[in-house]
Structure formats: structure tokens, C-alpha cells
Amino acid sequence: MSIDFQQPLQLDEPEQPAFDPISAVLSDALRELIYTGATNSARSLQTDIGISEVGTECARQLAYKIAGTPPVNLDADPMPSIIGTGFHLHMEKIFRQLDPRRWLIETPVAYRGVRGTADLFDRRRRLLIDWKSTSKAKINRLRKTEPPQQAQVQIQIYAAAMAELGETVERCALAYVPRDGKLDDLWVWSAVPDRSIADTWIDRLEALHDHLAQGATPADITPTPGLLCGYCAHHAPTSTDPTRACLGRNL
User: Fold this and answer.
1) Contact at 8 Å (CB) between 220 and 214?
2) Domain regions of the chain by residue span
3) Is 122 strand, coil or helix?
4) What is the dihedral of CA 116, 122, 125, 126, to 10 degrees?
5) Most buried one in 70, 81, 118, 224, CB count within 10 A?
């Protein structure tokens, strides 16, 4: 057979792709398996409030988790979390190839009983870094404002926790990397460690624990409605029982 290497080989395309039931079934099966695996990961099943959650603006959202209230919103797309986890794993692999005396990677930490994992600490520069994977559009918005409160609180608690391990942290940073952009689109926000921020928010968490221990329910906690309500595990637009689910506003 003679082949003309000057012309690329191409499959003949049908005028209109035919519906393929096997492909449709496979798509549904894979979606279900990925969803099930993601929602049953150790991180998804964690019941204690972790460092990354302390700065959550809505106190009622935290109260549901503290009270052990079963989640009702099971429609959240796991893909952003999966992609973020994959990026963390790749960064761990990259930095483990470098000087292990300089870099502390995926370090388990705790501050005042609240646990978490610090992504990356540079002992030479005394710099603490937390990776954030998001969209390029969001990074462009953050450049004009600043990172969300929850992320700022998170990195400050990590800094306090690293200090508890005996490390000197002079700067803490949130490194935003685009899921849909280039490396040039990476953007970093940084701040000086401020233990008072960590203590203020953990004081709030402890007060919430005490309030619930004294007989209060999540329904007694005023919610803070916002754009992220739809991602809350306890959000239900038709809920009539705020002890089990939230409308995103006071009933």
C-alpha cells in the first residue's frame, strides 16, 4: 500500500455522530465510581474540624459538623477537589527530589488541638506555602482583592502550628495555581505570621463547641448566607428543619 506522508491520515467523520448507548453507559458508570471514591476518601469522611475549616465564615456550617449532623447536600461536584489533590501529590513528588534538609513537605501539624497538614515549608527562606488550585478567572479576581478569609485564617494557623514544632516562620503564603492556565498565571499572596489571628479563630471554634455542649443546636446558630451556600454539605433549599439542614438564611 502506498502512503502519502505529505497528507495527514484522518478518520472519515460521519455527517452526524450517532448515539452510542455503550459509551453512554460507560460514562455514567465512570462518573458514579469517581463520585463514590471521592466522597468516601479519608478527607471527605473526616468528622473533626480541621485547620482548613476553622476560618469558615458561616458558624452554623461548623455547628452541623461539630454536632455530627449527617450531610444532605450530596450533589457537590468532586472534580475540583480531585484535581487539587492531584496537584498536591505532584508538588510533593517534585519537592521530595530536592534538599530534604531544606524542605518540609506535607507535614502533619496541630495547634491548640486542631489538626491539619502543612503543604510546604522552606527552612532556608523561613517561608510557609499552601497550594491552592483554582480557575484562572478566580486568580485574576483575587489579584484585585485578596484571598478569602478562610484561606488567610488557614495559613495563619499553619504558621502557628509550625512554630509549635520549633520552626521559625517569617512569611506565610498562599500560592494560587490555575487549573486552566499556564505556569505564568501562578499568583502568590503572602503575609507576616500573626498568631493573634490563629488564636481569635480557634477561640471562636472552642466557644462554638461549648455552646453546643450546653444544649444548643445548629438551628440556634445564625447562618451567614453567601455564594458558597450551594457547596455546603448541609444546604437544602426546601428544608423545614434547621437542626438537620439549612436554607442559607434564618427560618
Assistant:
1) no
2) 54-231
3) strand
4) 30
5) 118
Distance CA 220, CA 201 (A): 20
Which tens digits make up the pLDDT trace of 153-164? 999 999 999 999
Is 80 exceeded by the pLDDT of residue 208?
yes
Q: Report the alpha-carbon distance of residue 71 to residue 123 in Å, rounded.
A: 40
Say which DSSP state 235 is in: B
What is the Cα 200 distance to its own chain's centre? 21
Give the per-residue pLDDT at 86.
93
- As assigned by CATH, the class of the 54-231 domain is alpha beta
Q: DSSP 3-state assignment of 86?
A: helix
Rounded to 5 degrees, what are φ and ψ at 17? -55, 130
Report how far residue 140's alpha carbon sits from residue 7's, in angstroms, rounded to the nearest whole number: 42
- Distance (Å, whole) CA 132 – CA 68: 28
What is d(CA 66, CA 247) in angstroms, rounded to the nearest whole number?
Answer: 19
CA-CA distance, 248 to 236, in Å (whole number)?
Answer: 8
- Judged on CB neighbours under 10 Å (0-12, 13-18, 19+), 166 is exposed
> Mean of the pLDDT values across residues 196-222?
96
Say what the pTM is.
Answer: 0.87
| 161 and 127 Cβ atoms separated by less than 8 Å | no
pLDDT at 14: 66
